[in-house]
Amino acid sequence: MTGEFGFVESDEADAPGDEWEDLDLEEIAQTEADKIARRQDDEFDEFRKRIKNTEQFKVEASVFDDATLAALYKLTRDGHIVAFGGPVSTGKEANVYEALGADEREVAAKVYRINASNFHHMREYLEGDPRFEGIGSDKKKVVLAWVRKEFSNLRRARKAGVRVPEPIAVQRNVLVMELVGHADDRARRLAEVDVENPQTAYEVVREYMRRLYSAGLVHGDLSEYNLIIHDGELVVIDLGQAATVHHPNAEEFLERDCRNVASFFSRQGLDLDGDDVREYVTTAEPEPAAEPDPATDPNPDRDGDERE
Asked: Any idea which residues carry the catalytic annotation?
């Protein structure tokens, strides 16, 4: 891996932790996709048959159950998905599929499997968070909240100037986002490439960690496996578990992230440890020096040169 890494521009973030003040637990329990699946109108019925009869979508029923198909149907009706492609990746909790979005843009459809998702793993990041009071032990509510949480975290990260896949839409257990790379030429994880300029890569990663922290988020599972390279950019992925700094385990999550990053870049030859990373991440960026006011500047003639 060669070349320099640039930063994306950041917007002014909201106050840390307030990004989900409009979370509606009833909306999570009764999504539009669930209503469509129950209604089983003729148009959706045809859509369901067409998808299930497509070779590349003949997957286990735990992924494409009727409610999931209804979510995809709703996303196509809303114009977020125009056509489907093949699978990009498969995981324990979710599969990612290539799709075509509005204006022929390539997008990714991340489909979470409600029955197969690691409920206890998700609870670790949800318990103690006031945004999730009332969800309880209902597995469906937990998984659907998790998907919305990932969508919200991606939006917040981008607003803070962190290079993450752009979130486009969310419906039930399906998240539509920017496809980084292509199905036939996927972006490589940092763990899979030869890092020829580790100092520069490390500086980008730690800066993204600081921007996340300043925006009130801790990734919670950051490592060389959740950082990918595409077109000379480092991209942070998998923000479903990212927690606000108000989460009771936020410090533990941050310490783990810092240890993981320090461990990886130490193996690349850098002399650092988790404390070095943490100090940078939690130190606020200094405010830029203000330009002198000519009306109050005691030395109005200065122009960078010494005058006699």
From this structure: 221, 238
